[in-house]
Amino acid sequence: MTFRDLEPYVEERFVRASGPGGQNVNKVATAVELRFDVRASPLAADVQGRLAALAGARMTQDGVLVLDSREHRTQARNREAARARLMALVEQAHRRPRARRRTVPGAAARERRLLEKKIRGALKAQRGRVDE
Fold this sequence. Notes:
Layout: H1 3-6, E1 10-15, H2 24-27, E2 31-37, H3 45-55, E3 64-69, H4 75-94, H5 107-125
Helix pairs in contact: 3-4
């Protein structure tokens, strides 16, 4: 999936940024606020769910993912950075987590555990008061 597939569902706003840039910061809106409508997008339902989980607090109540980028001095580079972050999140959401296979500890591991418990218990039993 490329950014072109998601572009109709993306809205970009440019706002004034703080940080490096000198007087330019006070005049030019270089920071980018990218809004991606996850619910309206063509992503599969399970991918949308994983994307919402990955987004966390960046997801609004109505299913819009909000990313902002203000680390660069130019609007174009901030736009590229925000788009790259969106695509990285979408790619990460496309990966299904591997199912965890339940395992049972082997007989030797159980035996070791019980032996360690006995040793530990004996050590603690010696910590009591000393009878004269």
